[in-house]
Design a protein that fits this description.
There is one protein chain. This protein has about 240 residues and is of the alpha+beta class. It has six helices and seven strands. The strands form two sheets. The protein has a five-stranded mixed beta sheet with strand order 2-4-5-7-6. It has a two-stranded antiparallel ribbon with strand order 1-3. α3 packs parallel to α4 and α4 runs antiparallel to α6. The radius of gyration is 21 Å and the shape is globular.
């Protein structure tokens, strides 16, 4: 009996695995190196200086929180990818969810004079798991703020198309190169690595959005124009009338 293997597929999966391990090692090594450096500084005598010790402990706590967030996000993505997340679909008012997200992210946007615009009708509804829809929109809106320009806008809107409900999140940032668009939903992929380091984040948010959208039997897409901004669109099967 002959057994045939798709060598190309096996090699691709191995590359994905190696890239994932390389990325996660890098993301964990950076805060861990900082923690170790400041611990050594404290051990060398800085702990006797109350002002310095408070500052160094604050840095240690911040980097420990960064590691905790990354590990928690990786575990959550693993659960989503393995199908262990249950989707409880209900008729959900989208505008209400967006208002709540804006309330939480408002101070971050205000600090850079970024206007948050909820352009969704008050009675607009979609068929979705409310908490997971909020998670998807929070990730997209948070990114739209982070990668926007000072004084820009973030607009959330809705539409329908051929039996599909569409929820879009548009920003007025620098945009994404066309060559990067096919990969933006990959784990740890960053179109602008230097900018991503400045604004923070795990590099997993868009991957989570993609998987959650597909668990809803939907999808997510992106379009972008340099110097004009990007628009991410969540596509969900249309809510029955």
């Amino acid at each position: 009996m002959a057994v045939f293997y798709d060598v190309t597929q096996i090699e691709r999966l191995e590359r994905v695995r190696q890239e994932f391990l390389s990325n996660i090692s890098h993301e964990l090594r950076t805060p861990l190196t900082s923690i170790m450096a400041f611990v050594e500084t404290l051990e060398d005598g800085a702990i006797d200086d109350p002002e310095s010790s408070r500052k160094f402990l604050s840095v240690i706590r911040r980097n420990a929180q960064r590691m905790h967030t990354l590990i928690s996000t990786i575990l959550e993505l693993s659960q989503i990818e393995s199908g262990k997340v249950f989707i409880d679909k209900q008729s959900v008012r989208v505008a209400k969810i967006v208002d709540e997200i804006f309330l939480g992210l408002g101070p971050t946007a205000d600090a850079r004079s970024i206007a948050l615009i909820n352009d969704i009708a008050a009675d607009a509804r979609v068929e979705a798991d409310a908490s997971r829809l909020e998670q998807m929109l929070t990730n997209l809106i948070d990114n739209a703020i982070k990668f926007n320009r000072d004084g820009g806008t973030v607009t959330v809107a809705s539409a329908t198309r051929e039996g599909t409900d569409l929820i879009s999140v548009a920003d007025t940032g620098e945009g994404i190169l066309t060559s990067h668009l096919p990969r933006v939903f990959e784990r740890f992929y960053r179109a602008d690595r230097s900018r991503s380091r400045d604004v923070g984040g795990t590099g997993l948010g868009l991957a989570i959005v993609k998987h959650l959208a597909r668990l809803h039997s939907g999808d997510v897409s992106v379009s972008s124009e340099l110097s004009r901004g990007s628009t991410f669109v969540i596509e969900l099967p249309r809510c029955p009338s």
